[in-house]
Design brief:
Distance between the termini: 20 Å
Number of strands: 14
Radius of gyration: 22 Å
Number of helices: 12
Mean pLDDT: 95
Shape: globular
Largest sheet: 6 strands, antiparallel
Helix content: 25-40%
Low-confidence stretches: none
Length: 368
């Protein structure tokens, strides 16, 4: 889980679509990890009596990609096929769906024999005409931006949380270096069956629990702007406020949601994220729209940055790229993207540096 590549893989997988009065964009990238272990599922219109519902989910695998892949394929069906969901007890139906999936996966031969030790976090949102049903199991996270600010966020399930630590210790485990038995960094996940074998305890009382926290939020058509679901590769380097501020600034420049999610991932890479990264962005009618004023302000910012790079490099031709970044970081540049900062403008800085110092650029340009 801690092995990294010499250079990050920056190719991205993208999706976009619309339906039920919302739009969505998806981006995922392997980054520095030796394997891509993330998965996701997006769908508008869930069939039969749920055509006006939508489903969005991100799954962050660890110790392999098998569990996250199964979750992407099977979680939605496990939820909407539950008796509780059919009877309109949607929160309990979501909880039952998670537990049902975890049991279903445990029975698969590769997990039953103990050979495959993979696990996965899961964060998902079912969007109905009037409500958000948001569930989280692990440290992937969902954030709702309303009236320009994060109005709701799921809670990351870390072993050091008092309630999580108590369950782990009651099941005979320990929390060391903020990890379950000194190894696993999350206290809830699907899969991870080596942590779910304590006799005499139910599935939600094990060292690692598959039980999600389920939250219900009323929709506010006039003020709901967007919903973000992302793995911890995003949240490790950007706060809820950073992500909301940054996405809002990008929505003022373009309505291309794939481009926006790509920029978020790239910016997180430049901010130092070493993990796989996946993000689902769902926008609602009240989301910011492209503004000519914002576009012109961004164009002026780009020209200013270009001018600064040309000036500093022309004055000192042997200046390394990191020195250029350091110089720009010390300059108080106006109108940098909120939440993204100078890292959001890294591609422009790189392109000018490559033009001016082609002999140094190849060896010096890396995301960190």
């Amino acid at each position: 889980m801690g092995t990294f590549l010499d250079k990050p893989k920056t190719d991205k997988h993208n999706e976009h679509g619309c339906g039920n009065g919302l739009r969505y964009g998806v981006a995922s990238m392997q980054g520095w990890r030796v394997e891509m272990e993330d998965a996701h599922h997006v769908r508008t219109g869930l069939g039969e009596h749920l055509n006006d519902w939508s489903f969005f989910a991100v799954f962050d695998g660890h110790a392999g990609a098998t569990v996250s892949s199964h979750c992407a394929d099977e979680l939605l069906d496990c939820i909407i096929s539950s008796e509780e969901f059919k009877e309109s007890d949607f929160p309990q139906g979501i909880r039952t769906g998670f537990l049902k999936l975890d049991n279903r996966l445990r029975a698969k031969p590769e997990f039953a024999c103990g050979k495959d030790k993979a696990g996965s976090t899961a964060v998902c949102a079912l969007v109905s005409p009037n409500h958000f049903y948001i569930a989280n199991c692990g440290d992937s996270r969902a954030v709702l931006c309303r009236s320009g600010k994060p109005a709701f966020s799921t809670r990351d399930h870390k072993p050091i949380l008092p309630s999580e630590k108590e369950r782990i210790q009651n099941a005979g485990g320990t929390v060391m270096i903020q990890r379950v038995n000194g190894s696993l960094a999350v206290s809830r996940a699907l899969g991870d069956y080596e942590y779910k074998s304590v006799e005499g305890r139910g599935p939600c009382e094990q060292l690692v629990s598959p039980e999600p926290e389920v939250f219900v939020q009323d929709r506010d058509e006039e003020n709901d702007e967007f919903l973000v679901l992302a793995c911890d590769g995003i949240w490790d380097v950007m706060s809820n406020e950073d992500v909301c501020d940054y996405i809002r600034s990008l929505l003022l420049l373009t309505d291309d949601l794939e481009a926006i999610t790509n920029q978020v991932i790239d910016t997180c890479l430049y901010k130092g994220s070493r993990d796989n990264m996946s993000i689902v962005l769902v926008t609602f009618p009240a989301a910011p729209k492209p503004s000519q004023e914002a576009i012109e302000r961004d164009q002026a910012l780009n020209k200013n940055i270009e001018s600064l790079v040309r000036e500093v490099v022309s004055n000192k031709l042997d200046m390394g790229f990191r020195q250029v970044l350091g110089y720009l970081g010390d300059v108080k540049i106006a109108d940098l993207p909120p939440g993204g900062g100078l890292s959001a403008k890294r591609p422009i800085i790189e392109s000018i540096y490559k033009e001016l110092c082609p002999h140094r650029a190849e060896s010096e340009l890396d995301p960190n």
